[in-house]
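Homework help board

Subject: predicted structure for assignment chain

Our instructor gave us this sequence and asked us to write out the predicted structure in token form, then describe one feature. I got the tokens but I'm not sure how to describe them. Can anyone check?
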Amino acid sequence: MKAAGRSVGARLRDHLAASDPGLLRLTAGLRTVGAIALTLAVLAPAGLAITHLVAGAMTSMAATFAIRERQRRAQAVTLAVGLPVALASVSAGALLSERVVIGDVFAVALIFCAVYGRRFGDRGMSLGLIGFQMYFVSLFVGASPGQLPGLWAVMAIGFACSAVVRFAVVPVTPAGLLERLREAFRARMARLVTAQLALLDAGPDEVDKALEEVRDGTARLHETALMIQSRLEAGTPDEPTARLVQRRIADAEIAAERLGLLLLSARSAERADTLTLHLPGAPAPEVGRMPGPDEATALLRRDLVALSTVVLRSGPSGTGVAQVRNRLLGYRDEENLPAGSAAVRDVFRGIGEAARAVMGLRIALDGPQDESDDSPATARSREELDAEDAAIDAEETEEEKGEKPKGLERPTTRAAVQVAVGSTLAIVGGELLSTDRWYWAVLTCWIVFINTASTGEILVKGYRRLLGTVFGVVAGIMLAALVGGNTTAAFALVLVLIFAMFYTAPLSYTLMSFFVTAMLGMLYTLLHTYSWEVLLLRVEETALGAVCGVVAAALVLPVHTDRRTNELLVTVLERLSEVTDAAVGQLSGGLPADLLDKARELDQALGDLRSATKPLTHPVTPLRARRTNARYVVALLETCAYHARALAATAELLPTHPSIAADPRLRGAAGRTVRNIDTITARVADDEVTAPVVTGPSIASLLAGDDAARYGRITGRVLRHLERLDEAVVGLARPLDVPVTAPDH
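My token output:
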């Protein structure tokens, strides 16, 4: 029973790690709720008025969620500086509460400064958030000059409680966060392998569902890999360690994705396209039973289960796990592959490479392992990993220098001007609706500009906030009726709703808005200002604020969605060209380059593009053809990025891997692909460019020749990645309206 209990506990931890990588959402929710609860616990015995309790709770909430820095020292500095900012903001709100015009002008100026503060990094953004939120708090509780001394004391307590919870109760260190992200990566990789096992067993009617699970697992694994890479520098002791972990994470991700493609190819009539794993809703290729003897399929099923076990295993392996690992690593040698078709044998090779990647990641994260049970194949894999680790240097890379935008071209300046204009409109319209609750419109207008960069993004965010607000009003009515005048129950529900708000924020802005509105209904109940009319007014003010934000974004220094996506598309293509050219150059015998950093920049650029296209791919968009086109382009770019990452990872192994040798022919063979990427880039950046994309013989045929052995062994994997990348680049031409032509013979 005890062992079973540990097994259940381990499964629950794996589920939580996979659903919430790094426990970031859980930590955010617990920190905020803990800070509010501690603040209320300190203030309640003093017998303060409800308005002071609400002000203290909202202060601790703002002081908790506004902090953006990752280092604890920087967080402490921002908290210390944030307190006087908060005191000044509340004081201004109280002193100007009776001077409407001056107060409105100050509110607009404060909003401009809060948004413009993003230019100065995380601290500037945090102080801007604190300043605006505390001005809002003063309006919400109806602060007057006579109440300021009491409010100052309450706010100081709120900041102190936030600091206690942040640094003592729910502490998060960069190293600890990286450790939790590592566990999330393991859990998500194991889930992906389990989904691949389901794809192996899926019948004809189940293939589409199984493929969707593999697609979702692949995307989630990539998401976790990016989260880890963004925190490596702060969470590792030195740069060589960070680069080693970065390489091993990339190896494991690529190996897992490749295994899914090989498995799908084994069930298909032809080799599966990577696009199948990147285009949501893409139909599965025609599949049948796994070719070859049933024994091979049974072995595949057994080994996929074993691979999932090896992925999840942490700490000392034990003899049984070591034997399983040795068997899987043995598949990297031709003589150990089971009988079966070429495609099935490729899947076994993929399992062996995935097991090697998992072992490399464990060594990078946990240090040297027990080697007493190693088989010859495992010992050889360790030697390869040790040689690769020794090849990593700690040379600093020179930061790219480019001309920075100036004046109104800066995104922060543009957004600040837009939100100032939008807030002015919201103040005028909001006061026409209500002289007491006009700030709801301003709050909505301000919020829809946070983390948005185009008119389309602002429109979608405003729509989601309005939708969440409408449903939140209904929930607020029901909850207010449920708690009645019970103050304790109302505060308890406030804490629950705040936790839900922060836990769901990264998942759904609509859900977050729902919980915010329901929570405000509880606060109105506590302040004895709750009524149906107040909640209905909130919907009206929210709609007005969203409209004002969209109008300001569309008319004042507008950044249209097409322009924004084109700019980001050009950036993605430029990064793709850089990674491909550098990787092929190194595979051709050229000088080493910082391929992992270039691949990371490509992934970041692609993530920005994916976010910017959400307005185009939103389910309610009436432009169906445009939505399909945007989804297809992003999927093709994800396919290109996968193959470019794989080429970069292979090129990184070149100096140490015995089966990979430089081949000068590769540069010439892949030159067409790089030129095509540059052609598409130029065409997207300038409509007047008319150069076509050029097709021609396959990469494999360009490398064929009687002297193939002269340059050493070029793995089939490299050739396949080059061919697939070339095909995907040519495929980009059609949706981007770039002409395609074949060379004259």
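Reply (TA_rk): Your tokens look well-formed. For the description, you could write something like this. The first strand starts at residue 693 and ends at 694. That's the kind of observation they're looking for.
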